[in-house]
Amino acid sequence: MDMTTSATIWFAIALASVITVITKVAIGRRTTTVASDSHLPHPPVVNGVSTIVVLYAFLTKGLRSTLRGLHAKLGSVFTVSFFGFKLTFLVGPEVSAHFYQGSDLEISHGNILEFTVPIIGKEVGYGTDAATRNDQHRFFHDVLKPSKVASRIGPMTEEVQDYFAKWGEEGVVDLKQEFEQLLILISGRCLIGKEVRQKMYSEFFTLFGELIGNGMCLINVFLPYAPTLACRRRDMARANLSELFSKIVRSRKSTSVVEKDVLQSLIDSKYRDGKSMTEAQVIGMMISLLFAGKHTSSITSTWTGAHLLTDARSLKAVVDEQSEIMSKYGDLIDYNVLQQMNILHFCIKEALRMHPPSPVLVRKAHKNFSVRTKEGSEYEIPRGHTIASPTLYNSNIPDIYRDPKMYDPDRFGPARAEDTVGGKFSYTAFSGGRHACPGEALAYVQIKVIWSHLLRNFELKLLSPFPESDWWKIIVEPKGKVVVSYKRQQLCSS
Ligand code: HEM
């Protein structure tokens, strides 16, 4: 991160967070009073001047390094306190079970995800009550389960082939931008269905870009209902996108032809009381899927590429794997073939370990809970605390991951299996437990379809320096362009 220019912006963010948090704490003060009969101590606290020192370290050295320092000094559970706001970090799998597995009555996203409501709509997710949300969570898992994902691989492969057919014999591209565009095409085709892809693609592309671009800008995240231009643009794009989707949903309902896609599965989903989702809910669910899945997958495709193109050993291993698979299956790409791309799978997983798009997952504790560290210390964490699980740091703990700074996909192979040896919550790029990402299977499938095609058809070289992370983005992405040269080159089967 460019520390000098970024410090001012981070300071502004910190200030905005403090103001927002103070406002929310003030509003919710009655519910955050701690009452406990436990005799366990609370976690060590960083407060007063030390908080300013921590904030300074965060601004100048970054999140990972700051957490390393706090972890070394205070152990795996500690609270950073400022202006009455208490942020408790849980470092490592030993203390993370409640964070991921606790019920929503005990620990939940609270109002942390409020900024998503104007984007995805008040009819879904955090705009609704817990029972409706639980049912909708079940719908996500159902429509994204591997058997349904498998049926989308044909259209997805077609999109990928068509996209790269437009590249010339050789050239130079910004891989990040290419993947952004490709993933929106894949999402349009595989999530929403053929109507968008065939008739309304450019309208959809523009509106979705407007919705996310304005909805995810930092000021809107902290003050989602402020009277800003960005909020107005976000709301206008949301309304127009809704109208577009609503035409599709209505035309689906009025014909007897049943499509086999995610949209159709959502239309057919039933709540526990047997009722179907309303049109607005179906639309909200579609936008949620696009919102949660498109950008994360394109970023991860880019990081995977940046690592493969700077690590000759891993690149050779994935190319050899493709060649071997081609000798068995020719050009066929289906779920079974993709499942056999283990080396490519580990390369993507390793890119995600080093660059999780959500570097810190956050919850609100509604009831006190206790944790026991690896060293045997026990703490009680009071309700009202905001709880952070720092995925970025947890996936870099040297006791779990050997040489964590090294890109080493072999660490996930059967001989080492570092993520499982370390315990259940050692690898949380896709979260875990109750809120585990339902799109994990789809994410791997789409990234593998893209990268297997590139490895089989092109020779690629990274021309720009290895990208830094852009910490200014809510979903952290590679900073700037990722410039790559390509030359068509058909891979032979081994
Ligand atoms: C590399 C790609 C991806 C990564 C790293 C990723 C990561 C995550 C994480 C960390 C969460 C949970 C956040 C939390 O616990 O607070 C999440 C939730 C979610 N993801 Fe993904 N995701 C990816 C791709 C996808 C895809 C492709 C889809 C679907 C199209 C998807 C749909 C969702 C949904 C719907 C949720 C919310 C689930 C709920 O709480 O009801 N994700 N994702």
Automatic annotation (TrEMBL):
Catalytic activity from the UniProt record: a 14alpha-methyl steroid + 3 reduced [NADPH--hemoprotein reductase] + 3 O2 = a Delta(14) steroid + formate + 3 oxidized [NADPH--hemoprotein reductase] + 4 H2O + 4 H(+)
Gene Ontology biological-process entries: methylation; sterol biosynthetic process
User: Which PROSITE patterns does the record cross-reference, listed alphabetically?
Assistant: CYTOCHROME_P450 (PS00086)
- Record's family? Belongs to the cytochrome P450 family.
What is the official name of this protein in its record? Answer: Obtusifoliol 14-alpha demethylase
- Which residue ranges run through the membrane? 7-27, 39-59, 204-226
Keyword line: Heme, Iron, Lipid biosynthesis, Lipid metabolism, Membrane, Metal-binding, Methyltransferase, Monooxygenase, Oxidoreductase, Steroid biosynthesis, Steroid metabolism, Sterol biosynthesis, Sterol metabolism, Transferase, Transmembrane, Transmembrane helix
Question: Where along the chain is heme bound?
Answer: 437
Query: An example Gene Ontology cellular component term from the record?
Result: membrane
Q: Name one GO molecular function term.
A: sterol 14-demethylase activity
User: What is its membrane topology?
Assistant: Single-pass membrane protein
Per the record, the domain of life is Eukaryota
Q: What is the E.C. number?
A: 1.14.14.154
Q: Which compartment or compartments is the protein found in? A: Membrane
First-level EC class: oxidoreductase
Q: Which cofactor does it need?
A: heme
InterPro entries attached to this UniProt entry: CYP450_sterol_14alpha_dmase, Cyt_P450, Cyt_P450_CS, Cyt_P450_E_grp-IV, Cyt_P450_sf
